[in-house]
Task: inverse folding
């Protein structure tokens, strides 16, 4: 049996000590063999249909509480440590996702993605909560009128990532929240379907609606797009009131007079608006985190991330590369779906990163980096987005420890399979059910790396550069530091799902490069080939540049001409490395007297295509490379 995560939120509390002792023969809170604290959670909310009947409690580890301010003092006595957990959780409900794990032939049910919510004054030990999903214009990008029309005509009304999509987990009621925060209860429903358009709810009879009263809200718990409502309100007040509520008059469905092209344009506009809103939020988060980048750099980074298998942020130490990735993850609301993996100088092959098969003890031993466990989680939760950052990834040779990934990441989505060990060892390994021989890396996993370019690091080979957008972040003038106000907000963002993130992408396959752009790239390729036959621009690079350009946010501050210039720098000029004898004619000669560039064959081609771009960054890079050739005799 494989690991599984239920996608709906559950609510639980720390159970009574006597209850747990009678049911499990254990304490509610205890120290495990690894000297870590575990505790049990009693589920008090509506459970999914396939929830195990024999499971009275869910286990949880205190590291899940750390984002909420809890710190375990390992130097304290055992009783003091346990009491701190009990005191910390006493006045809180725990909202969590349930995860099923198999370890060493044993099954475990673990709470993850924990959120804490203070108990209301009305809380009592017999409280049972039922889940009502909330739909709104802000969350579902749909007006009240359009939502109600779709609901009446049994059409898809949008997604809600907080409730179960399973067939037998239909919510009896749903809520609509208007812009002013007023809510309406709608129901009753006894069936639903789920597809790319979200949920389609099927009523028992007619759909009736009533206001969701303020006193009901005062006794309920709202978390993101869900309202957890006490049982007495669900089957007392709401159920009775809704029977006397107003039925919807099934209005005739308005004829869709838009042409197919107009519908497609309207859909595209919604997606552009959604991405524009995301980028506005991303820019604000970088400011709040005390970062100050050109907006063009942020748009370049976002476009590269959403279109490439691997993005590498380069620059001198202290420019905030890792912090930028963290800000991007925060904007996406990823929480523990974001992993930072510090690369160690001692790594020499991929076993240091992903682990190895220990045939002596017949177990698979994953690497200390935690990468494999993250990829397993991503494989089991394909609707969620995961971001993995390899920090200072060139402290060791990327071609060595990242070798298998370099081959996997160039494959088409759906075919990216990482092999951990040989298939025939599966049934012989004690943890073979936990660590399968292969891992599929889906399109819900995004990889970013950060590198410092100095004497302590290794330079990239063409094999790496062929597969990555290498972005050098600009260092802004220091007087910008006066404008930075580090707010460090503790705002929690709803996670951006894989489907929403994918809606930012232009997945069309036909080449979108213009004939002029293709002619320019071919001219550059031919000139580079004259200098060295093994260098040039391969078809893979052309496709990647094309994909980047047609995914550039239209409403952003980075123009297509500027983006084309950046792609030359990030995908082509990074590979112009070698001795002066090889590259001097291609790159040009650096004049020491006036610090200018002359006799550059590449810049001669650039000057023949002024309509494509000003090529500002290209000219700066060429000047720098020519300077390196003149002063060092080579460029790297």
Result:
């Amino acid at each position: 049996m494989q690991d599984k995560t239920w996608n709906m939120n559950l609510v639980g509390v720390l159970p009574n000590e006597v209850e747990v002792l009678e049911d499990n023969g254990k304490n509610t809170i205890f120290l495990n063999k690894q000297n870590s604290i575990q505790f049990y959670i009693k589920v008090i909310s509506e459970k999914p249909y396939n929830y195990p009947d024999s499971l009275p409690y869910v286990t949880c580890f205190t590291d899940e509480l750390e984002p909420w301010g809890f710190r375990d003092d390992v130097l304290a006595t055992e009783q003091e440590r346990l009491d701190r957990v009990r005191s910390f959780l006493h006045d809180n409900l725990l909202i969590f996702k349930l995860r099923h794990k198999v370890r060493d032939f044993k099954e475990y049910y673990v709470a993850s993605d924990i959120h804490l919510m203070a108990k209301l004054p009305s809380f009592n030990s017999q409280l049972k909560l039922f889940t009502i999903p909330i739909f709104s214009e802000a969350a579902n990008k749909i007006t009240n009128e359009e939502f109600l029309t779709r609901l009446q005509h049994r059409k898809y009304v949008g997604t809600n990532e907080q409730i179960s999509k399973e067939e037998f987990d239909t919510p009896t009621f749903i809520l609509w929240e208007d812009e002013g925060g007023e809510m309406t209860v709608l129901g009753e429903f006894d069936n639903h379907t789920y597809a790319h358009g979200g949920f389609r709810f099927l009523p028992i009879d007619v759909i009736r609606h009533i206001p969701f009263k303020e006193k009901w809200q005062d006794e309920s718990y709202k978390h993101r797009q869900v309202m957890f409502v006490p049982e007495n309100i669900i089957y007392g007040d709401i159920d009775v009131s809704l029977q006397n509520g107003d039925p919807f008059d099934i209005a005739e469905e308005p004829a869709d007079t838009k042409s197919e092209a107009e519908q497609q344009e309207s859909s595209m506009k919604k997606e552009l608006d959604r991405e524009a809103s995301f980028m506005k939020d991303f820019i604000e988060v970088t400011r709040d985190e005390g970062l100050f980048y050109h907006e063009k750099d942020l748009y370049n980074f976002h476009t590269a991330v959403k279109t490439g298998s691997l993005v590498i942020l380069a620059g001198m130490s202290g420019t905030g590369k890792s912090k930028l990735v963290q800000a991007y993850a925060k904007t996406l609301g990823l929480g523990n779906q974001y992993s930072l993996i510090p690369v160690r100088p001692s790594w020499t092959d991929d076993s240091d990163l992903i682990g190895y098969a220990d045939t002596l003890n017949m177990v698979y031993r994953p690497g200390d980096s935690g990468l494999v466990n993250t990829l397993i989680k991503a494989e089991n939760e394909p609707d969620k987005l995961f971001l993995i950052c390899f920090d200072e990834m060139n402290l060791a040779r990327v071609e060595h420890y990242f070798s298998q990934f370099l081959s996997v990441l160039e494959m088409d989505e759906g075919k990216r399979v990482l092999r951990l060990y040989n298939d025939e060892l599966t049934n012989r390994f004690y943890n073979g059910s936990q660590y399968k021989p292969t891992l599929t890396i889906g399109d819900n996993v995004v990889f970013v790396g950060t590198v410092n370019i100095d004497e302590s690091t290794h330079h990239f080979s063409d094999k790496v550069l062929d597969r990555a957008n290498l972005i050098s972040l600009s260092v802004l003038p220091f007087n910008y530091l006066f404008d930075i106000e580090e707010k460090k907000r503790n705002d929690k963002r709803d996670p951006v799902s894989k489907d929403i993130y994918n809606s930012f992408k232009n997945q069309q396959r036909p080449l979108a490069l213009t004939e002029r752009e293709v002619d320019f790239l071919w001219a550059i390729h031919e000139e580079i080939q004259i200098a060295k036959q093994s260098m040039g621009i391969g078809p893979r690079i052309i496709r990647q540049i094309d994909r980047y350009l047609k995914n550039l946010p239209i409403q952003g501050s980075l123009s297509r001409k500027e983006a084309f210039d950046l792609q030359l720098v990030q995908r082509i000029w990074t590979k112009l490395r070698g001795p002066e004898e090889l590259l001097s004619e291609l790159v040009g000669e650096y004049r020491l007297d006036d610090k200018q560039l002359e006799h550059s064959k590449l810049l001669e081609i650039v000057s023949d295509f002024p309509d494509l771009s000003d090529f500002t960054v290209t000219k700066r890079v060429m000047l720098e490379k020519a300077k390196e050739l003149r002063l060092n005799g080579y460029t790297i």
